[in-house]
Amino acid sequence: MKISRILHAGYVFEHGGTTIAFDPIFENPFSRNCHAFPDVRFDLEQIRQLKLDAVFISHFHDDHCSLESLDHLDRNTPLYIYCLFDELFAMVRELGFVNVRQLRANVPVSVGSFDVIPREALDSDVDSMFQVRAGGLNVLNVVDSWIDPDALVLLARDAPWDMVLWPFQTMREIDVLSPSRASPAPAELSAEWFEQLGLLNPRYVVPSSCQFQQEPWSWYNQAFFPITYRQFQQEVEAALPGVHVVRMNPSVSMELDADTLTPSAPLGWVVPVGDQDVDYHYDPGAKAPPTAEIARHFAPLSEAQAERVFDYCRTGLLEKYRAMELPEDSFFEKARIWRLSVFTHTGAESQFHYRLEGDAISLLPGAADRLAWTTEVPIAKFYAALELGESLTSMYMRINDAVFAGDIEDDLAAADIVDDPLIRCLFNDVFGAYQAAQLRRLKDRSIDI
Asked: What is the top-level taxon of the source organism (predicted)?
């Protein structure tokens, strides 16, 4: 079995004349501001000539299911997607794919010499994993999910595994939202990882999924990624002496057989750029720059785009908040004053103050005393979330990066950061915004051509 890394969670598997791909991404950056790490570029002309027997997509997140990447593939390519929402299948079909099928947990799919079995992830409403069998070999692609306990019992019966593609990075996408309140990442890998890998007992483990950083200037690059490739290899091999950790950078290919794992010819259409032996650097003391400074890195909005954001702050946000159901034990069950700060590309700040109590919200005419919650965001990212499908992880939102009155601080200790009103209004009950924005761009592009 030949296994090749594309990027992030993207792989190509080949065996017996059959070629299948998993979560293919042919963009850099992808998902708006995920920059390949190590750096690569793609030969799109070669990609357009690919003849894949099938593509499997583990879930709908935009770093795994990108319509702009799929757009380069032959429309007759069978697509197998794990997703509970019909809207995604409709969008993929609108892109022109004629053979699109929904995957279900534990229901095998046979493609040529491969059997691919979706396995249940911990969050089965979103994620799936893939068991891949061919030629007597057994590979588990955990993607970037975690394993459901019942699924682990099932998977352990197939031990020892030949290879496991393991999501080695624990991204701190929530911690960076409120850096002054975040605790440092644990210094060691999770004991649960060793327990699970011990039950799977693989011959080889590939540190998988996270192969990206944010923009070169971003402070997230020191705060987002706490685990290095080096640490992962050292700790896993020390805890599980029979396991070999193998790093696979983009384009790298390996031939796996019953006895060995050997290098093979790389993917010609994934082109490495610069040093490929890079590693993450986590700095628990990394200082977060002010949101005003971060906002200066983004291009200015047009007058109409800026007005779209400010109009949302004045009216749309209030309508959305009132229409949603308040989470159980919400911080906002009590009357609270919330300040939303929006920063332009010059660093200029516009403030909006709201009074919230339960499902009620009102815009106050000016500043208010006894703030209980603060949210800051660059206007460019705010607009992108409204119109372009920007995800929370790339918003550079800053929440409660302040000190409040003592009783409010006591309440905040039990509050959930994603109870933030702007997060809820922009992202709750929203599905496929990124893919929908991609589809609009692709259709507009085809009209222009």
From this structure: Bacteria
Q: What is the pLDDT of residue 368?
A: 79
Q: Which of 225, 228, 261, 226 lies closest to 243, judged by CA?
A: 261
Quickly tell me which residue has 């920007």 as its tokens. Answer: 390
3-state percent helix, strand, coil for the chain, nearest multiple of 5: 30, 25, 45
Q: Measured between alpha carbons, how far is 65 from 305 in angstroms, rounded to an integer?
A: 27
d(C-alpha 150, C-alpha 173), whole Å? 27
Full set of structural domains in the chain with CATH = 2-272 (3.60.15.10), 291-448 (3.30.1050)
Residue 244: partners with Cβ closer than 8 Å, 6 or more residues away: 203, 204, 205, 237, 261
Q: Which residue has the tokens 């390519």?
A: 77
pTM for this entry = 0.95
Contact 291, 180 (CB under 8 A): no
How large is the angle between the packed helices 303-311 and 379-387, nearest 10 degrees? 80
Nearest to 376, CA basis, from 294, 276, 300: 294
What whole-number distance in Å separates Cα of residue 352 and Cα of residue 375? 10
57 contacts 81 by C-beta, under 8 angstroms: yes
Nearest to 130 by CA among 115, 144, 140: 140
Q: Which amino acid is at 235?
A: E
Please enumerate in sequence order all residues whose Cβ is within 8 A of that of 96, keeping only pairs 6 or more positions apart, or say none. 75
Report the pLDDT value the prediction gives residue 112, as an integer from 0 to 100. Answer: 98
pLDDT for 288 equals 96
> Contact 210/157 with Cβ under 8 angstroms?
no
Residue 369 has a pLDDT of 82
Q: Splitting the chain (449 residues) into consecutive groups of 10 residues, what average pLDDT does each group show?
A: 97 98 97 94 98 97 96 98 97 98 98 97 95 98 93 96 96 95 94 96 96 96 96 98 97 98 98 97 95 98 98 98 93 97 98 96 90 98 95 96 94 95 93 93 79
The two counts, helices (H) then strands (E), for the chain are 14, 24
CB-based contacts of 393, cutoff 8 Å, min separation 6: 171, 173
The distance in angstroms from the start CA to the end CA of the chain is: 41
What are phi and psi for residue 389, nearest 5 degrees? Answer: 80, 20
Reduced to 3 states (helix: H, G, I; strand: E, B; else coil), residue 250 is: coil
- Report the half-sphere exposure of 154 (CA within 13 A, side-chain side): 15
